[in-house]
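Session log. Operator J.P. requested a structure for one protein chain; no other inputs attached. Running the standard single-chain path with token output.
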Amino acid sequence: MQTDTVPALRVSDLRKTYDNGVEALKGVSLDVAPGDFYALLGPNGAGKSSLIGIVSSLVNKSSGTVEIFGTSIDKDRDGAMRLIGLVPQELNFNMFEKPLDICVNYAGFYGIPRAQALLRAEEELKNAQLWDKADKMSRTLSGGMKRRLMIARAMMTRPRLLILDEPTAGVDIEIRRGMWQTLKAINAAGTTIILTTHYLEEAENLCRNLAIIDHGRIVTEGPMRSLLAKLDVEGFIFDIDGELPAQLPVIEGTALVASDGHTLDMDMPRAMDLNRVFAAFAAAGIRVRSMRTKSNRLEELFVRLTGKPEVTDTDALTPHAQDAQERPA
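Structure written below.
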């Protein structure tokens, strides 16, 4: 019996070994709660794409179990897939179709009557701020609009679980932040979202919980705030009035550098008293106009756990050609 206490996604001891011998997943287990906004992070070749491919039934698993709101992908694949909306990283719609037709035709694949699909398409295109482009050729849309169209199309089936694979890849920061608002609204309306991204600021701003996967294993998981609180270093940016002195003050335990002639970048132990920092600035004749916290805490956590400097947007362990060969008929 499905209840609100059943995880939106339950993965248990999931393993995947490809024909070339690459072991992409080595016993991955995780639960995603209903209504959560969940980040799945990992470096190139970590196993993210394999995990998403198996959950969305595009890649065959070697062993383990996957349940979507209590529905097993082994026992009821079609039922499980009806609960999922997938937004892949690649743009995979017909550029010579109109957004309205793309959405309506997609709904038709799932047996949604055309009259109902037309109403849903209008609603979802409006939510994506694309209704004024509904009858334009999709190839004329901007990169950000095409990304939003992918989300609108996925929402046509009213999925309970929306999986987003690098949804803002290749778009500028203004468009990205606009898409954040769209995704927050979808989540607030009750849809569970799983996000993979290599923009660490994106994960920190959007997600409440996360898992970091590396070499086919989950290396850490839990609430975003709790994981970030484990860091013993905090970063600040100081905007300075006037010019910086030729010699910056030396403050024991901190790393202080000048980003430019009017900005200081500092990492310091979380337990350190900021008054000590301001006293050193004052002694050096540095006047602080404003300060802000750096948004790189999640990146620091990632580096500590995996030893890698950044999260990339591809997964070398799952080439598209190999994935395509494994897609179920």
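Operator note: The two ends are 29 Å apart (CA to CA).
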